Structures are given as structure tokens and as C-alpha cells.
Amino acid sequence: MTEISTAAEVSGRPFEWFRSLSATGKRAFFGAFGGYGMDSYDFQVLPLALAAITSYFAISTGQAGLLTTVTLVLSAVGGAAAGVLADRIGRVRTLQITIAVYALFTVACGFAWDYPSLLVFRALQGLGFGGEWAAGAVLVAEYSRPEYRGRTVGFVQSAWAVGWGLAVCVYTVLFQVFDPATAWRALFITGAMPALLIIWVRRNVGDAEIATVQRTVGERGRIQSLFGRELWRTTVFAAIMATGVQGGYYTLATWLPTYLKKSRHLTVVGTGGYLFLLIGGAFLGYLTGSVLTDRIGRKRNIQLFALLSVIFMVGYIQVPHGANTLVLLLGVPLGFSTSAIFSGFGSYLAELFPTPQRGTGQGFVYNFGRGVGAVFPTAVGYLASTTLGLAGAMLFGALGYALAVLALFGLPETLGKPLR
């Protein structure tokens, strides 16, 4: 009997995608969900603490943006390496390694003694941050039935909003209890929590049969194979798509807390409240996008929410001063759109690459997008010091979504296709 559930027919019952998973598939889902949620938590502590860090080390907005950029650039390296490891030593073992790396160096950031040491620790954190998604998304995709793959992997993506929300809760409490100079360090130290997840994954989660067989017959992923005659076009266009979407998203994720504090003059509690509506919208967006990607297709789902992301990002930033209630309300559709676009990524990339190169391809493409998209937050940081200001500079992120839509014209639709 295979590891993937073989239910006879598709049902329209709610959460049928979850019922269709085998027992081992369900444990893999929870392992990947927890790993991605903690991945989000350990990433988001930096944007939340960025204003305090900027004051503590007396750095410019450009230097502050560089902290996110080095995280994303190194995540490209970590993601590509994790993809290769996932095809060589297995999805689950790679998942454990990446969780350990991002947890260790997030904690190390809390002990940074100056700006250069923080920059180094944050860069090393990026290695694990980029690798976790590469291993977890492939793991779950290989347990999923084709008709439910978009929903199953999309629900894993929703863990990003859960981790983000948890980070905001902890941030709000710590910055109320401690002064900012202590609170930002404490926030990073809480990044040790994912270490507990490693123990559970080690005891309860295993690779799907399709991946185990692939390793047994000696077929291993190699990055150079992604640029061979059969895969180069897919690799190039998928990498451009991932760059556009993530360039736009990380502009928002990096600078929005600072924008709310410095441009909208909100308090810590006020910023947390505004972010919670954004995160609530994000969570609903992940769930909605995961359903739509199985209904209207992977490409249409990305195109639809890329367009909506641009509309709501421009609207959010251009709201006049004094109309903070409107900013509060626009946070829901903004979070919804910028998150729903990611729901189909895991299933789409898994379907674009054959099994021997699946981890390698997915890890390289997604994290190439993170690495090159990392230019966006730094560019915004430097543009913010010009006459544009932070609000005007953030609109630069909207260009990324247009790039993603153009790249999709070079990729096929994979809805309903079995894994190769």
C-alpha cells in the first residue's frame, strides 16, 4: 500500500483534502505546518523590532533594510542547498536541519553586540529560513492527491500568517513590559521555540514513498540539471515569477511596521492592532487562495491576486494622513491579496519539476526569487531617504507583481496533473 491515500472518488465535503491524506501524510502536514509557522515567526521578529534596532545601533534606513536583504540573499543559498539535500538525504531530515539552523541564529541575533554582528547572525539565519519551505512544501505535495494538492499545500502556506500573528502577540507584550533596548533582544531570543518541533518531527514524520523510491534507485537532484534542454525554460520563468511576487511581498513585510510607527505615528499597541487585521486578512487569503488554485488553476490564481495586491498596496499607502480608520480597514484586503497569491506556489512548483529534481527545482526557484527579490527592501530603504519618503518608496514593491504576471506567460498550467 502506498503512502498516499487512495480514496476512490473526490468528495465535496469540507476538509476532504485532509481526510484524503494517509496517517503518515497527516503527520507530515502538521510537521510542515509547524515548521513554516515557526519560520515565519523567526523572520517577522526583525521587521517588528526594526525601529528599536535602528535607534539602538544608530543606523540609517538603508542599513536597516540591508538586514532584511542579507536574510533573503542567504535564504536563496540555503533554499537551493536544502532542495538538493531534500533530493539526496530526504525531505524530513532536511526539514530538521533547516529548523535547527534558523532557530539557532535567530537566538544569536538577540546577543548581537553591534550592527555588523547582527548583520552576520541574520544572514546565517537566512540559510535555514530559505531551506525550510523547500523541504516542507515538497514533503506535503508528495503525500497529496492531484485534485487536492493546491488546497493541501496552500493550507501549509497559511502557517505563515499563524507564525506572524504569534510574533506580533509576543512583540506587543515584550515592548510593553521592557524598554525597547531590552525588548528587541528578548524578542529574538524567543526564536528558540522551534527547537521543540525538531524532536516531534524526528519521532513522527517520514518521507512519502515516491521520494524514498527515487533515492533508492540513485536518481539525485543536481542544480545544473535544472538548466538542461527539458527544464531550462521552466526554471527561468518560474524564477522570474518568484522574484516578482516575493520582491513585492517582502517590501511590505519589512517596512510596514516602521511605516505605521513613523509615518502614521501609531503606538506599539496601535501598530499591533493594525497588523492583526492585516494578518487576519492574510490567513483568510491563504485559505481562499488554496481553494481557488484547485478551482481556477495555478496561473489564474497568481494573476488575479497579483493585480489585487497592486491595487490595495497603492491604496493603503496613499490614504491621507488623519484617515487612520481607513488604513485599518484596508489592512484586511491588503493582507488577503498579498497572501492568497502564495497559496498555489507549493503545488505549482512541485508539479513543474519531475521527482528526481523536485526538491532541487522547487528550492532553487523559490529561493532565487527570495534572493533577487531581496533587493526591493534595501532599495526602498535608500529611496525612503529621498524626497519620496517611506510611503512613496514602498510603492516600488508594486512593480514586482507586474513582473510576476509577465513571467507566467512562459509557464504551462498544471492543474490536476499527477506528479511526474
**Shape verdict:** globular
The major β-sheet equals: none
Binned, the helix content reads over 70%
Classify the fold: give the CATH topology. Answer: Growth Hormone, Chain: A
Brief overview, please?
This protein is mainly alpha-helical.
Describe the structure.
With 420 residues, the protein is mostly helical. It has a single domain, classed as MFS general substrate transporter like domains (Growth Hormone, Chain: A). The protein has helices spanning 16-19, 23-57, 61-88, 91-109, 115-143, 149-157, 159-177, 180-189, 195-204, 209-216, 232-263, 268-295, 298-317, 324-340, 345-352, 355-373, 375-383, 389-394, 398-407. Helix 5 (115-143) runs antiparallel to helix 16 (355-373). The model is unreliable at 1-11 (pLDDT under 50).
